[in-house]
C-alpha cells in the first residue's frame, strides 16, 4: 500500500457535503449555489446579516427545509424525498435553536429521555442514565426534576443542548443559541459549546459571538443575500477579510 493511500484513509472524511445547493421560497431565491464541505470534527461558525440565509442553510442539512437544486450529503446519506434517509440523518444531527423549544409540561429529565425512548427505543432506565450523564456534562444535574419554566434562560438552553446530546448525534447544528438570552447567561451556554467542541463534535454554529468564533471555529463563513461570500480560518477572517461585504459586516458587529 502506498503512503498516499494510507494518508487518504486516515484523513477526516467530509461529513457534510453541500454541492451547488439552491433554494427558493416561492419566487424568492434564498440560497444561491451554496458549496460547503465540513470535515468530521470540524467547527464552523456561520455569520452574516439578518435575512442572509443562515438559518435556511443549516435547516436544509436536516431537512427542516427542502432544497430544490443541488446535492446535500450527510454522513454518506443523500437527502432526497426518501423518508427513511431523512429519518436516518435526523438521528445523526442534533439541533439547538434560539428559542429552546423544551416541552413545558415535562420535567428536564423527561425532556431529555423522550426522544431516546420513542425514537431509539431505549428502556426508560437506560434513557435516564444517559440523560443524567449529559445533564452533568452541561452542569445542571440538580435541575433534573424541575420544569423548564422554573429554570433561567441559560439553564433551559443547556437542557436543550443536553437533550440533543442524548440522541448521540454525530453533528450538532446551532442556530443563534445565545441571542435570546440575557447577557449574563451567554457565557454559561458558550462554555458548554466550547466544551462540546473540545470533545471533538462536528459543529455548525450560526452565531454572532465573534469571541467564540475566534477561539473555537476552524473556519468562519460569511453569508450575504443567500450566498457564501467568504470562508476562512478565524485568524484570516478577522484580520484580513477579502470581500468588501465582509469588511462592512465586521465593521458593524465589532464596533
Ligand atoms: N418560510 C419562509 N417563507 C418565505 N420566506 C422565508 C421563509 N423563511 C425565511 N424566509 C426569508 O428567507 C430569507 C433568509 O431567511 P433566514 O435563512 O432565516 O436568514 P437568517 O437566518 O440569515 O436571518 C429572509 O429574507 C427571510 O425573510
Ligand atoms: Mg436565522
UniProtKB/TrEMBL annotation:
CDD domains: ABC_HisP_GlnQ. Keywords: ATP-binding, Cell membrane, Membrane, Nucleotide-binding, Transport. The keyword Cell membrane applies. One of its GO terms (molecular function) is ATP binding. It comes from the Bacteria. It holds the Pfam family ABC_tran. Residues 16-250 form the ABC transporter domain. Belongs to the ABC transporter superfamily. This is Glutamine ABC transporter ATP-binding protein. It comes from Lampropedia cohaerens.
